[in-house]
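Here is an idea for our session: we take a single protein and study its fold together. To get us started, please write out a protein record for me. Once you have written the record down, we can walk along the chain together.
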Amino acid sequence: MTLNGFLDYWCSLDWRHQLRHLAQYLLIAVLLVFVSPFGMFPDQPLVRLSYWFAILSIFGMAMMPVTAKIIRSTGAFDDFSRWSGIFGCVLFATIPMTFIVHAIEYWGWSIAAARLGDAVTPMRPSRDAAGLIALFSQLLVINLLAIGVNALFILALHGLQPEARNRPPAGMRFLSRLPDRLGTQLLHLQMEDHYLRATTVRGADLILIRFRDALQELSDYDGLQVHRSWWVACDAVEKLSRQGRKIELLMVDGTRIPVSAGYRKTVEEMLLGKVVKD
């Protein structure tokens, strides 16, 4: 699995993946009950099982998907190798998780002490700076174990996939900036000051990004710039019209887009064979 494939997997989890993950987390939690790492709840196996299952579920159901989407949308790990990038994803997901677990521990111990009494409640662990670092280290080890088990399940179910199948969809970095309601089927982009109006088959919205940065992120997408402030998806062009030296594109959504003189030759070469000319 490549780094992009890893990020794509965690960014596109559906309910079937989540159910499979929950089963994996339960198996890992049972293992941790018997191993009893870090000396937690030595005489309370059910508490240990509930604790580890909750921690692993938070990691897999919330922290990893959110972290993967942030990393993919920002391109923060674009220059990382596969293994260093995966380790970095797990590490960054573990940072906020450490404070969440600390809060769970605090309230959990408080509730247990109130119901069971201080005499039978395990001593609350110290969570000063050193304690938080220790908790972070413990969670990082457990999270890496969970990622390793998940990878084994993927290999068992699907085998080793060719590199090409793990390649992210064209323009994924830009498409990840779009609101979910717009989908990912682009029609055209129009520059509006510091924003871009991105139009898909489902609607349009303003995206805060420079036009040249968007063009770079869409360099592998089947589209082209046709004007200093317009970009179009090639398969969304319905008709090419020419009046003298003036060229205009009619898009499938009815939008008419002018073609600048500097882009006329490129547009004709790429689109004349695909569209009808007036």
Observations:
- The chain is about 50% helix and 15% strand.
